[in-house]
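Look over both lines:
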Amino acid sequence: MTHKPTILVVEDEEDLRDIIIYNLKREGYQPAGVETGELGLGQANAMKPDLIILDLMLPGINGLDVCRRIKQDSNTRHIPIIIVSAKGEEADIVTGLELGADDYVPKPFSPRILLARVRAVLRRSKEAEEDNAQLLEIDGLSIDRNKFQLSIDGKPEKLTKSEFSILHFLASHRGWVFTRYQIVDAIRGEQHVVTERAIDVQVTGLRKKLGNHANLIETVRGVGYRFKE
């Protein structure tokens, strides 16, 4: 029997929660819904769902605290989280991503958009073992981590260590949105120093070297960057 992914919806607006659950069921998922952060934490531990859709504005424990606790708990930290949030809450979205959320969908949203994000996050979760791949082949790019070498359409392109590390990190997580802080945190173990402000400079230089492939690195306004899926 094919496994039907389980999805926990933590949303205090009953009508919206019901709409999300209805559409998830239509797509073949097994959803469950709760209306508070406290219940969300309890169900996350009890269900161990394949994915959590989490509203930020919740009564009692807010969504950011729910996200923080889930990602700090060794029993639940592996569960992907999609934040749903009003457009005016950019700072909270950034905080949520830095706490470990995997994606966000601004309110108001169409069910089709949310379902597309759900499919993408679940797919990326299954492909997580590829995150540390030494050689990535993507849309004409060959990114060889062993040699710290990039080839574009078969021609080698020289990158700085910082540029290469940023490129490999983003390309290893196609479609994921990362804040500048997350990018710094991911590559700070390398033999070089990068600050949040320097990330913009590095990305600008990287895009120039990518030439016709520059659009593969997308700017997510108010949040950070992602590698085009």
